[in-house]
Design goal:
about 350 residues, alpha/beta, 4-stranded parallel β-sheet, about 45% helix
């Protein structure tokens, strides 16, 4: 007698493996061992598992539509990524549906569920800074929807991705400050659960070590937004913390730093140098203009979309592609050499 409603999750539970592993085993994915494939297929027969015919029918039809999930479109970096994505999508005859998570895990889950129940041929995603659980993305993967991550990836999730060389970018920014004579360099860091934050912090720390500068961990402060930077910078000044430079995780945070330093009549870069990350348009609008790390957003969008097209068209190799794009330090007036 047929067991009602047997799903991939039921098979996974019995075998003590993830649903995504079951899904890939059933699809004869090369990343899954033969013994696991044999176990999964044997149990699927025993449990009388049958794929959802409606879902299969929907997935077998191409819509020529790609879903894109980004944290925030307001940032120049992400708008540049979108431009790169759309350029390649147009070349392949694809349309793009863009949704913002607004840095919210809950909103990201809602967006992914919407894409799951619509007809998209693939997904490009950069996860929110709140995201710690990834079941909503695994569900898309289990449905056979190709996924490519860009900028912010999920550690341990097997997929193609394109990222920035965050480590080297942060290293260059910090070493630049050290070469300019700065020794008390504050780092306004990003969320500790995000790999980009970890990489930038690692670059900051290694630049200190490799240049013989003592690391003061009290100068590492989690702060990644304009308004938080206003509060944190003023607090540092009020508490008379000694510092001669601030390296921020993004340019909007640096803008908050510059605002408060100027309001307190602290000379930039005479007393304190400021370096951001991202080379947002705001970097050249600030006074003084902001030294920052340029990241190739447009190229990231192009490469991520091309990877996804290769997956959709079965032109990609079985192993996942992992591409790291170079950054460039752009020196401006906020960190010029002391006279």
């Amino acid at each position: 007698m047929k067991s009602p409603g047997i799903t991939i999750k039921d098979i996974a539970k019995v075998l003590g493996i993830s649903p995504s592993t079951v899904s890939r085993a059933l699809k004869d994915h090369p990343d899954i061992s033969q013994s696991t494939k044999d176990q999964v297929n044997k149990l699927a027969v025993e449990m009388n598992y049958r794929p959802n015919p409606i879902a299969l029918s929907l997935r077998s039809k191409k819509s020529n539509v790609i879903g894109v999930v980004i944290p925030q479109i307001v940032h120049y970096f992400f708008s540049s990524v979108i431009s790169g994505i759309e350029k390649v999508a147009n070349e392949y005859g694809y349309s793009v549906i863009i949704s913002q998570s607004s840095e919210s895990y809950v909103k990201e889950v809602e967006v992914c569920q919407t894409f799951l129940h619509s007809i998209i041929d693939g997904l490009l995603i950069s996860v929110s800074k709140e995201t710690d659980h990834y079941d909503h993305i695994k569900l898309l993967d289990e449905e056979g929807i190709p996924i490519v991550f860009f900028d912010r990836i999920i550690e341990g999730f097997d997929s193609d991705y394109v990222v920035i060389d965050d480590y080297n970018g942060a290293y260059q920014a910090t070493e630049h400050l050290i070469v300019e004579g700065r020794r008390r360099i504050i780092h306004f860091s990003g969320p500790p659960n995000r790999l980009i934050s970890k990489k930038r912090l690692a670059g900051y720390l290694d630049a200190h070590r490799n240049n013989g500068v003592v690391i003061d961990e009290s100068l590492i402060i989690q702060c990644d937004e304009f308004h938080k930077a206003i509060e944190s910078t003023q607090q540092l000044i009020d508490e008379r913390v000694k510092f001669d430079a601030i390296f921020t995780v993004n340019d909007f945070t640096a803008a908050g730093v510059i605002k408060i330093l100027r309001e307190n009549n602290i000379s930039i870069p005479g007393d304190v140098s400021v370096v951001g990350f991202g080379n947002d348009h705001i970097a050249e609008m600030l006074e003084p203009t902001l030294t920052t790390v340029s990241q190739p957003g447009f190229a990231m969008g192009e490469k991520a979309m091309k990877m996804l097209m290769d997956r959709i068209n079965l032109a990609a190799p079985p192993e996942y592609k992992k591409e790291v794009l170079k950054t460039q330090l752009i020196v401006r007036n906020s960190s010029r050499k002391r006279s």
